[in-house]
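Re: [ENG-882] Designed sequences occasionally contain unexpected residues at chain ends

Forwarding the minimal case from QA. Structure tokens:
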């Protein structure tokens, strides 16, 4: 099964980041605080670490990481980070947007971060889950009962 949504999640992330940039440029509403850049780097490092670890887990299991074709999945990965979150790759993107929120220091962008969570859940994660239930059946259903969608 091919996902109805044809925009790869990485591109969705970039679009949301560009929206955040545009809002920051247009509004001029900024906040600054001590250690702001440290928080930015913490979220960047967390996001990159989580994302790379998640991709590595899929590669190790020899299964597809193609988000537009979840039906290519040949293994249900439930170990490593996948014990704590069903979607560490999307969590990594979320942490990237949180880093951008703090970097730009614009209060309005928190709404964009929340919109990303809703959008990726509605148009990417939930459709993926339907496909994974078809492929893995009770194994995926039981995994969903034990492991949260985000964190």
């Amino acid at each position: 099964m091919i996902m109805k949504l044809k925009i790869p999640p990485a591109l969705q992330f970039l679009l949301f980041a560009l929206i955040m940039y545009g809002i920051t440029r247009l509004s001029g509403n900024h906040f600054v605080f001590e250690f702001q850049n440290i928080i930015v780097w913490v979220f960047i490092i967390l996001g990159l670490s989580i994302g790379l670890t998640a991709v590595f887990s899929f590669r190790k299991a020899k299964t597809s990481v193609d988000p537009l074709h979840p039906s290519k999945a040949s293994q249900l990965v439930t170990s490593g980070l996948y014990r704590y979150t069903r979607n560490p790759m999307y969590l990594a993107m979320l942490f990237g947007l949180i880093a951008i929120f703090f970097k730009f220091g614009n209060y309005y962008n928190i709404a964009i971060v929340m919109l990303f969570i809703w959008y990726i859940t509605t148009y990417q994660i939930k459709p993926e889950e339907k496909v994974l239930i078809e492929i893995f059946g009770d194994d995926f259903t039981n995994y969903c009962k034990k492991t949260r969608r985000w964190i």
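QA comment: On inspection the terminal residues look reasonable. The mean pLDDT is 94. Proposing we downgrade this to a documentation issue.
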